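Following the same procedure, the fold was encoded as tokens, giving this record:
***
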Amino acid sequence: MTLVKDSLGVVPLSRLPRAAKVMAITYARRGELTAGTAFNVELRAAFPSLRAEVVDADDPGANFARLLAAADSADAVVVSSYVSHSWNVASVEAPRAFADFVRELSARGRNVVVVAMGNPYLLQQVPMAPAYLVGWGGFPVSQQAAARALVGAAAITGRLPISIPPLVRVGAGLSRPAAPNRTP
């Protein structure tokens, strides 16, 4: 796992009490049936009152206003994106509505963590996100590892093997030790 940025010092989420209100928003295409499943299971083990929502990346009319209202009562909001490049997709860019949604979440002062499980270059569209973790793939094992790192059950030590122009260079990455006595 590679923690690219954490300007508010919210990662790991183990700094929050177990009873904290954490909202997990999975952003994926309709065909990605396993997107967020293993990730949310691990988050729920650490935060039993986890509120999980799914946004279909192919739906231009996604109800972001409802999600913003729900996020207002959350202690932390984790937005995991599973959108990646494939042969049948013309662009891996997230729609502007999604980037605007992350911008508004961040502007409202929420403890927002964006987790890129698909396209690590998503940061170019959401540079305002206070925390950005690259999970390197939407496979269940990657989801579990990302969630464990996020809640402090595993150390974060990764470094970027790529640059994300113009924001970060090859080799960037913040380290976080595992939190003592924190298991999901």
